[in-house]
Specification:
binds ligand BES; about 20% strand; six-stranded mixed beta sheet
Length: about 475
């Protein structure tokens, strides 16, 4: 989508216009007759989105609330306006937002661009959902640099959503490696996709174990963005769960629990999208991303409940439930990260139904070890981009629940606090400041959720990018 910035309102011939202001009186481009008409239909003049006619809408900004809340309302308004534009099949649109500061203007277009996302690649032409070609913003605070940065970030979200929405029939682990390599090309990131032979040589028994039931080989993807002007000596590392499809393995998922399990590489998509956005923004921070990837299937060699496997650091694990596979492949990735002596590792995974049940889809379940300050900063970024994190306890009392009977660990906690015991399992393999984000709730939506859309949300791309931006400023 083409983004343009104008300083003055112009009549456009083939498009819709959204006027944004704090009250109708401030919208001086709207005719007096329309204002009179409006005063009759307005109810509260606060956070109100009014469709005047198929070509005109008005959004009156909230009178109260902090800047994070207002920005989120503006994203939602941007998406509503996008809906109007596509309803009337208009390909060019204009947002008049003279009174907004630059952050508010950015938020509005962000909602508009993200709302434009469609996963169209498997439709035959006539069924493709409409999209908008170009949008003009009339605001003199926003800079073209801000628009360029926004375009980079929204493109990374689109990349992540495309990969998550892609069914396993079209996205094997090897194909994910190829797609990521292609997307990172030219951004200044070193990408290595390690194949099964290399994974075997590294004795990554978690990744190989989960892969045993599969017809397709696993991959382990390493990404390294190390700009010459990096402000950090030790890297920030992202780890993302890359299960391209989770059937549960021999502990086969039943009912409709398997339906959306192509989403199970949502963590991988988020970390890959974010590191590319960070590199394209040329942020002066050394960042790495590691993605263990396989599908989880009940093939003839599949792990059986009770089997014991050995993670690459020598830890033995009793696999009591083959559907708790994410932690097994992530264990190898977290061990791999140790050699880089990271200043912080952020693990992102659609790890447990327990996290989704605890807080639903409105936020991310987070936990940390030796990273109390870092998670607070990450939470602030979460509020800013509206990808909010709630920190769960990580008390040592939970540790006992993952001790194995015949091996060091078991991959199953007790009946309670499943998101936390899964996090505890991961933390076993770390010796650095560690944050784990469980995105099982917000990664995928069943019905359209404003600018997040329907299906993959691409959550954590904007969060991680914002966090590294923040570090770059410190
Ligand atoms: N991929 C699932 C978690 C999941 C559930 C993600 C719902 C998104 C939506 C994970 O591999 C899984 O199956 N976890 C089990 C763990 C259990 C067997 C300990 C779960 O949460 O039920
Ligand atoms: Zn599973
Ligand atoms: Zn899974």
């Amino acid at each position: 989508m083409l983004l343009q910035k104008h300083s003055e309102y112009q009549q456009i011939s083939k498009g819709a216009t959204l006027f944004i202001g704090s009250s109708i009186e401030t919208l001086d481009e709207i005719s007096k007759t329309k204002i009179e008409l409006l005063s009759n239909i307005l109810t509260k003049q606060d956070d109100e989105f009014i469709v005047l006619d198929p070509l005109t809408a008005i959004y009156l900004t909230p009178k109260k609330g902090d800047s994070n809340r207002i920005n989120e309302k503006l994203r939602i308004a941007g998406d509503k306006f996008h809906d109007l534009c596509t309803k009337t099949k208009l390909s060019q649109c204009q947002i008049i937002a003279k009174g907004l500061n630059s952050e508010e203007a950015v938020a509005t277009i962000e909602g508009f661009i993200l709302g434009d996302y469609q996963f169209n690649r498997h439709f035959s032409n006539e069924n493709k959902k409409p999209q908008v070609d170009s949008v003009i913003i009339v605001n003199d605070q926003i800079t073209s640099n801000q628009l360029d940065e926004l375009a980079i970030i929204c493109d990374a979200v689109k990349f992540a959503k495309d990969m998550i929405n892609e069914p396993a029939s079209h996205l094997s682990s090897v194909q994910m490696g190829e797609r990521i390599t292609e997307y990172a090309t030219g951004a200044g990131i070193k990408v290595e996709v390690m194949n099964k032979r290399k994974i075997e040589a590294l004795k990554m028994g978690g990744l190989l174990g989960v892969n045993q039931g599969s017809e397709e080989p696993p991959v382990f993807i390493c990404m390294d963005y190390k700009p010459r002007n990096a402000i950090n000596d030790s890297p920030i590392v992202f780890v993302g769960k890359g299960v391209v499809f989770d059937t549960g393995g021999l502990n086969l998922k039943t009912g409709n629990f398997m339906e959306n399990m192509k989403l199970d590489m949502g963590g991988a998509a988020a970390v890959a999208g974010a590191i590319v956005a960070i590199a394209k923004l040329k942020l002066p921070v050394h960042v790495m991303a590691f993605i263990p990837s396989t599908d989880n299937r009940p093939g003839k060699n599949a792990l059986a409940p009770g089997d014991v496997i050995t993670i690459s650091d020598g830890t033995t694990v009793e696999v009591l439930n083959t559907d708790a596979e994410g932690r097994l492949i992530l264990a190898d990735a977290l061990v791999w990260a140790k050699q880089y002596k990271p200043r912080l590792v952020i693990n992102i995974a659609t790890l447990t139904g327990s996290a989704a049940r605890a807080i639903g889809s409105h936020g991310i379940v987070g936990m940390q070890q030796h990273a109390a300050e870092e998670i607070k900063e990450l939470q602030e970024c979460g509020e800013k981009v509206h990808e909010r994190i709630v920190e769960f306890p990580f008390w040592e009392e939970y540790d006992d629940q993952i001790k194995g009977d015949i091996a060091d660990l078991k991959n199953l906690g007790g009946p309670e606090a499943g998101a936390i015991t899964a996090g505890k399992f991961l933390a076993w393999f770390t010796d650095y400041p560690f944050i784990h984000l469980d995105i099982a709730g917000p990664a995928f939506t069943e019905k359209k959720d404003s600018y997040r859309g329907k299906g993959a949300t691409g959550i954590c791309v904007r969060l991680l990018t914002e966090y590294v931006r923040k570090i770059a400023l410190l």
